[in-house]
Every structure is written in structure tokens, then in C-alpha cells.
Amino acid sequence: MPDLAHFPADTSPDDLFAALARDGALVLDDVLDQAAVDALVAEIGPYVEATQPGRDVFSGFNTTRTGALVARSPLTRERVLDTRIRALCDRLLLPFCQRYQLHLTQLIRIMPGQVAQPLHRDRWAWGKHLKDVEPQLNTIWALTDFTRENGATQVAPGSVTWPDERVPDPAAVTCAEMRRGSVLVYTGGVFHGGGANDSQADRWGLNITYALGWLRQEENQYLSCPPEIAATLDPELQALIGYAMGSYALGYYTPPLPAGAGPEVVPPEHALHAGSGEYSMGSDELLAAIRDEIGAAREPA
């Protein structure tokens, strides 16, 4: 059985990225202290307890998945903006996009009796069309200990180079066992899946995922965190969940106003200030910026 590399929380981003590029997954140990984990559990817990289990084999008949955590959980917002994880996003995703985005927030609770999830690649959310780019970076923050008995995530280190059709040999798969407060970091290309919970207690993991800014988000952040809530957030987080242009003309919209009542083309952050008369870029400026960026992209290197 292969080993999954573990690193102290203060390991340099370059060293972490080298391991991530090689194995597709790693564990950062003891990133959060126990008081911080307790606070997250207390804040998210009422939503988790009200969430119904899945209705198919993949989502898990004894597994709950609770979302909209940017809107619901201020402490989750801090985790989304974690500088250690963002540094890895910069290295992994920015070579393929101008801006990456939040793809998913979900508290995954694997309850006793849950069988192991089928091994898969998260990048298959977009089908099997993406071959030459890495579209996403994933994290699972352990809010309970992750053990082999309670459903620690199964991972096949090094499987980022495998063809999609390969069926993982059990000997190539290990468990991401880690202490409460640690973080499993893995790419969209590594084979993995939730483990079987043969214990008598729940396994809680906070799943936060980032993706290239020109791809459709798995969790629709505009609906999970609509403008009236997003307007109250830190500007960096607003941009990360999608209230910013993704690239060139990606993300603009036209406010559905009466003829002549407002601008015709605005960036998505305009929705956060609708009615106030305040937004960061007017329609003429936005169109000029789009033209400039497209022109620059067309110039020979």
C-alpha cells in the first residue's frame, strides 16, 4: 500500500506543490487547533443535522452533504481564503486561467454503515473532456479524526497520470488518515473516494474546492450566495466566489432595466451595488477593457 505524504502546516508552498505534482494528494497536519475546529462544528452543525442523506450509491445512502457554506458560515469563509491553500491554487491553476474561483463548499458527513464510495476523479464533473489542464484543487478539512474505520478518504497517490479507464488496484490505494484539524489537499486528477464507515461515530470533512475561472462551478455560488449576502463579504471573497470577471468577456451581464434606465454592460460585481449607483467599472470602461485584453491576447508572443 502506498504512503500519502504528510507535512507540517508551515511547510513552504514550493515543497508542497512538488509533492502535489508528484502524487496528486498530500496531508497538511494540524492546521487548525481544537478550539477552531469546535467553533466550525458548532457553527455548521445545525445545518448538517437538518440535511437528508444521499439517494444514490455515489452520494451515499448514509452520507449527508451540506452546502451554501459561504453564505451560512463565517468561519468557513476564513478557510476558503486560507493563504496556504491559495498559494497552491496559484501554482496549480493560474497557469491555465486569469482567475480561479470557488467551485464548491460542502460539509460531508459519513455516518456509520456507509459503504465505500466508488473511486473517481473530481474533474469528471465536466465529463472526460479536459485532458491537458488541471482544472481544480480540492481540500477536505478534518473536523473529526479521519481513520480507516470511520471512512477516511481513499486516495491512489500518483494516479494523476493514469488513463480515465483504469480501474484502481486495491494495492495502489491508501487512506488519508489524519488528525482532527488537518487538511487533505488533492487535485482533480487523482483517483479517490470516501471510505467505508465501520465505526460507531460520524466522520465530518469540510470540502472546499477551487476551479479554473472559465469553467462552470459545481455549486452555483450566485444562487448559494446571492448578491444580498455576497455584498456583505470581503471583496477578495466576493471575487473568488464569482462576483468578478473571469477572463476577457466572461461574466458580464446586462441589468434587466427599462430601456435607457441604466448601463447596458456591467461586470458581475455591479450586482453587489445595484440600486446604490456604485460599481467599479462603467459599461464603456468594461467594453474598452475587454477589447484591450482580447487585442493583447491576439498579439504574437
Describe it.
The chain has 301 residues and is α+β, with helices and mostly antiparallel strands. It has 2 domains: 6-221, q2cbj1_9rhob like domain (Jelly Rolls, Sandwich), CATH 2.60.120.620; 245-298, no CATH class. Helix content is 27%, strand content 18%. It has a 7-stranded mixed β-sheet with strand order 1-2-9-6-11-4-3. α1 crosses α5 (83-93). The model is unreliable at 277-283 (pLDDT under 50). GO terms for molecular function: 2-oxoglutarate-dependent dioxygenase activity; iron ion binding. This is Phytanoyl-CoA dioxygenase family protein. InterPro entries: Phytyl_CoA_dOase-like. Keywords: Dioxygenase, Oxidoreductase.
Features:
alpha+beta, 9 helices, single chain, 7-stranded mixed β-sheet, 11 strands, 301 residues, 3-stranded antiparallel β-sheet, 27% helix, Jelly Rolls
Number of strands: 11
What is the H/E string? EHEHEHHHEEEEEEEEHHHH
CATH topology of the largest domain, by name, is Jelly Rolls
Q: What percent of residues are in strands?
A: 15-25%
The CATH class label of the largest domain is Mainly Beta
Q: What separation lies between the terminal Cα atoms?
A: 46 Å
Estimate the mean pLDDT confidence: 91
Structural shape: globular
Structural class: alpha+beta
Q: Which architecture name of the largest domain does CATH use?
A: Sandwich
Taking strands numbered 1, 2, ... along the chain, how are they ordered across the largest sheet? 1-2-9-6-11-4-3
What is the CA-based Rg, rounded? Answer: 20 Å
Strand count, sense and barrel status of the largest sheet are: 7 strands, mixed
Q: What percentage of residues falls in helices of 4 or more residues? A: 25-40%
Unreliable stretches, pLDDT < 50, 5 or more residues?
277-283
CATH superfamily of the largest domain: q2cbj1_9rhob like domain
Protein name: Phytanoyl-CoA dioxygenase family protein
Organism: Phenylobacterium montanum
Pfam family, one: PhyH
Keywords: Dioxygenase, Oxidoreductase
